[in-house]
Design goal:
Radius of gyration: 52 Å
Order of helices and strands: HEEHHEHHHHEHEEEEEEEEEEEEH
Helix content: 40-55%
Strand content: 15-25%
Length: 467
């Protein structure tokens, strides 16, 4: 097939450029030249190339200015396009850089706030643990006081009163805006409102606290950059955790408020007004007062969530109240001076038929009969203010527990303490007997509050709810 193609080309070449002879006559002589097909084809090709070059050169010369202008225009267009792309890249870089800084600031702010909330919650829970430990300690002492008492031959121990719990919360710092303080009155009466009234504290939720504002990042920018998308996702995740921390603080607030309500309920069961008792506790600290600073000026460092701040401030206030109430509850007698199977309550509080006269008379306490010489123990810590014979009481011990609370232990066979002695809950103060106006061995037990005799049964029943 290759040979056939070559033969065809060869035949076409001879047909198109047949062999020619060129004759030249000069001086009577004739000369001729033979022009072969190949020579003619070669000459024709060179002629076409020459003519093409001439045409190109002619066009190039004629349209030189236009070609140069077109090239210059294309060059300018390319330069403009290049500069536009550089500018777009710079803008995109600035946009991404700004967005990255903004996202990093938001992430750091969210992480710092989460850490501050975490530290605050830990501090509040530690404070609550301390309060709970104080409650459990008080319950343990009360249980040991209600357990079977040693026999008459046991030694007497006088325990010092435990210190009232006053620990720092260790939470985030609370700052106050430097605003002018309103003129204060020269004197003021104590407010007889419940310590659980947090209407003023609740107004703190209306204030906005927080970090410096950062430029917003458009969703389009975030969608174009994987790093920003990841950072935005992590920031949102931390914010959700922060919301959970706020709910946890609110839950803690509710639990603490419930604990305070339980303590106040115990006080109500004894017949003591919780609000009045709380005023006594505040007065016992040497008076309260100070300039009036609005809660809107309060700032919780590192935390911008108003709901969390509101819950924290309420929790702190309730914990402070619980601390005070627990300190006072330690001085409230909630147990019996004697306990065990060998003791029996023989007479209650109130009207009864007098065992000596047979007439109706008022009995100001509870009587517990038992074996002579059994130890009679203090039902709360305090100071002995009477330790001697006192009329129909016979040998009697009276203890001042503070906050207007006194207890009396009468008809003792012997007294084991002296006036001025500090006794702890469960400390032996005397031995059971039948001195004074008595028909048999028993202890007459009285409780006085604000110079008014109270029913000891209410205190003992309230103590059972505590235990």
């Amino acid at each position: 097939m290759a040979e056939t193609l070559a033969e065809r080309i060869w035949a076409w070449l001879h047909e198109t450029f047949p062999e020619r002879q060129l004759y030249i006559r000069s001086d009577g002589r004739v000369q001729f030249f033979t022009l072969s097909s190949i020579f003619q084809a070669t000459l024709a090709g060179l002629t076409l190339i020459f003519l093409g070059w001439v045409a190109f050169a002619t066009v190039n010369v004629v349209f030189k200015d236009r070609i140069i202008a077109a090239k210059e225009h294309n060059k300018q267009q390319m330069q403009s396009t290049y500069e536009s792309r550089i500018a777009d890249m710079q803008i995109s870089y600035d946009e991404v850089n700004t967005a990255l800084i903004s996202a990093d600031d938001k992430f750091k702010a969210a992480a710092d706030e989460l850490q501050a909330k975490q530290n605050t919650i830990i501090a509040v829970l530690n404070r609550k643990q301390q309060v709970d430990a104080a409650v459990n300690k008080q319950n343990d002492v009360a249980e040991s006081a209600n357990a079977d008492k040693p026999g008459p031959g046991d030694s007497v121990d006088i325990a010092p009163p435990a210190a009232t719990l006053h620990e720092s919360t260790g939470s985030s710092d609370i700052t106050v805006d430097p605003k002018p303080i309103k003129p204060q009155p020269r004197g003021a009466k104590p407010v007889h409102a419940s310590l659980l009234d947090f209407g003023a504290v609740g107004r703190i939720a209306g204030a906005l606290f927080g970090h410096k504002a950062t430029p917003e990042i458009s969703p389009e920018v975030i969608a174009r950059h994987p790093v920003l998308r990841h950072l935005a996702f992590q920031t949102e995740r931390i914010r959700r955790l922060s919301t959970t921390q706020t709910a946890l603080m609110a839950r803690t607030q509710g639990e603490v408020e419930t604990g305070v309500q339980e303590i106040r309920t115990v006080l109500k069961r004894t017949g003591i007004n919780p609000d009045a008792f709380a005023q006594k506790l505040q007065g016992a600290e040497g008076g309260v007062g100070g300039p009036e600073i609005p809660l809107s000026s309060v700032r919780l460092e590192g935390i911008a969530d108003p709901a969390f701040q509101d819950a924290y401030l309420k929790t702190s206030a309730v914990l402070e109240e619980m601390d005070q109430l627990l300190g006072g509850m330690r001085h409230v007698p909630l147990s019996t001076p004697v306990s065990g199977p060998s003791f029996e309550r023989t007479s209650g509080f109130g009207a009864r038929i007098d065992p000596f006269t047979g007439h109706y008379a008022f009995h100001p306490g509870l009587d517990f009969s038992g074996p002579t010489g059994a130890l009679v123990r203090a039902t709360a810590p305090g100071t002995v203010v009477w330790a001697d014979v006192r009329g129909g009481y016979g040998k009697m011990v009276e203890i001042n527990h503070g906050y207007g609370i006194h207890t009396r232990y009468a008809h003792l066979s012997s007294i084991l303490v002296q006036v001025g002695a500090r006794v702890g809950e469960g400390s032996a103060v005397g031995k059971l007997g039948s001195t004074g106006r008595s028909t048999g061995p028993h202890v007459h037990y009285e409780i006085w509050y604000d110079d008014v005799v109270r029913n000891p049964r209410n205190f003992i029943e309230a103590g059972r709810h505590v235990l």
